[in-house]
Automatic annotation (TrEMBL):
Motif (HXTX 1): 44-47
Recorded catalytic activity of this chain's protein: a 3'-end 2',3'-cyclophospho-ribonucleotide-RNA + H2O = a 3'-end 2'-phospho-ribonucleotide-RNA + H(+)
Keyword Membrane: no
HXTX 2, short sequence motif: residues: 129-132
Descriptive protein name: RNA 2',3'-cyclic phosphodiesterase
Catalytic-site annotation from UniProt: 44 (proton donor), 129 (proton acceptor)
Amino acid sequence: MTNEPHYFIAIPLKERHKEYYSKWQFDLKEELPYKQWANKEDLHITLKFLGSVESNKLNQLLNYLNVLEKTNEFKIATGSLGFFGNPKKPRVLWVGVDKTSALAALHHDVEDVSVSAGFEKDRRPFSPHITLAKKWNGEEVSMSGLKEQYDNDERLDLIVNQVIVYRIFPARTPKYEVVAAYELKGEVD
């Protein structure tokens, strides 16, 4: 185990989205026994988890990520409720994000830049989402009714105009601190 700080690259949510999905969390806490619920300020869409990173390698990556500022901003939709793992005891509860071609291209660019800076290529397929809660801690439940209820809720458009590198502080709330921000160009109608 290393003592180096941990980092990840993500799309930040707008305040409107944070408020909206934190209300989902408030309601869902009554029904679902998760150990960890994401702080409203920590809600995001992960593009790449970096893990433990030495400062010189991080600085190289931050320099390489400047290429993202040539990327045009774009719009995606968020809003379906989903989970990873056993449907009766799901390990992660999340809000779905439409995987548009623009989002897939941004993820691909982040992967390429990260690999160029010496990071391992992610072997798992990209599954964009906003984590609401993790670490199930209770009896089995049926997620189908909840999923159906929230899938019929409003879908929110999100203008993706920024990519952030965050540092993780496990003992703090909120846990994530901005290290660098990259502004995408243009304006979406």
